[in-house]
Amino acid sequence: MSQHLLLRLITLSLLLINPISATTIIQKFKEAPQFYNSADCPSIDDDSDSDDATKPIFCSRRAVHVAMTLDAAYIRGSVAAVLSVLQHSSCPENIVFHFVASASADASSLRATISSSFPYLDFKVYVFNVSSVSRLISTSIRSALDCPLNYARSYLADLLPPCVRRVVYLDSDLILVDDIAKLAATDLGRDSVLAAPEYCNANFTSYFTSSFWSNPTLSLTFADRKACYFNTGVMVIDLSLWREGAYTSRIEEWMAMQKRMRIYELGSLPPFLLVFGGLIKPVNHRWNQHGLGGDNFRGLCRDLHPGPVSLLHWSGKGKPWARLDAGRPCPLDALWAPYDLLQTPFALDS
């Protein structure tokens, strides 16, 4: 029996016994190399807004603050994403990660995984109590979209310290091939709360039900806005303006409406479109080449959109690590593979 087939059989047997613990047991990761700042990187030791013993970088205005969710199911993607961010950064030591984990998750295990792969990384893990949002979640077209942790991006302003004024939010199923500092430096202007690539050629009306558009009051939501679709997996957010405008409450109001009257089908995205559609700062499409995971039903292979690429995003049902493990990768999954730090049991024994 080949070593590859034996590994498949071991993995399958563990998953059949206990799918949750199997994820934790099997997924061990290699240590990433340490990355250093270039000579012209700004110092962040003297610009912190923190007045306590917190390490200066966690409140630094010059640091690049990155927020991501963290869970056992997507930890492999998260580790690859972090590696890609550090590898392509001119100032990797000026990046701080803010990870959000569900209160029901094994936060200490997740923290240990990140620490072992990135011993020099500045990061914190914040516990997200999902009870407040769980009561507002309605079923969507794909069960994976109903995970409460998907809604954590709506609560970053509450979870992260008040001294963190701006953050780049990233999904776990992506990699960067450019310097994240360029994205973080996006000019939001004086009034924009968030920035993201917009896709105005998409059929915006399809993101909401006929009940929404036929309602004389709800249909006026976008009357004074040129609303376009944007993907919430890559966003630059002004947390100070978010807090001032109480935008979490605005999103929750639309989720409560959804519980009373079905106005959309697609998880955590539509509330963002309802609140921010037509009001965001557009970002070049190169910063979210999304949809590489195919649609929400079959996850078929897709090509890149025309134009330059700074970030590849496997949004949709198909994830590169799952397709690679199944021996049925899409051509673009080969671009994700070099950032995969997964260590097989055989590699651990060698």
Mean pLDDT: 89
Q: Mind summarizing the main beta sheet? A: 7 strands, mixed
Shape: globular
Q: Specify the structural class.
A: alpha/beta
If you compute it from the alpha carbons, what radius of gyration comes out, rounded to the nearest whole angstrom? Answer: 20 Å
Low-confidence stretches: 1-25
What is the CA–CA distance across the termini?
A: 19 Å
Sequence of strands across the biggest β-sheet: 4-3-2-5-10-7-11
Total number of helices: 14
Helix share, percent:
25-40%
Beta content comes to 5-15%
How do the SSEs run, as a string of H and E?
A: HHEEHEHEHHEEHEEHEEHHHEEHHEH
β-strand number: 13
Family: Belongs to the glycosyltransferase 8 family.
Signal peptide: 1-22
Pfam family, one: Glyco_transf_8
Membrane topology: Single-pass membrane protein; Single-pass type II membrane protein
Features:
350 residues; seven-stranded mixed β-sheet; two-stranded antiparallel ribbon; alpha/beta; 13 strands; disordered N terminus; 14% strand
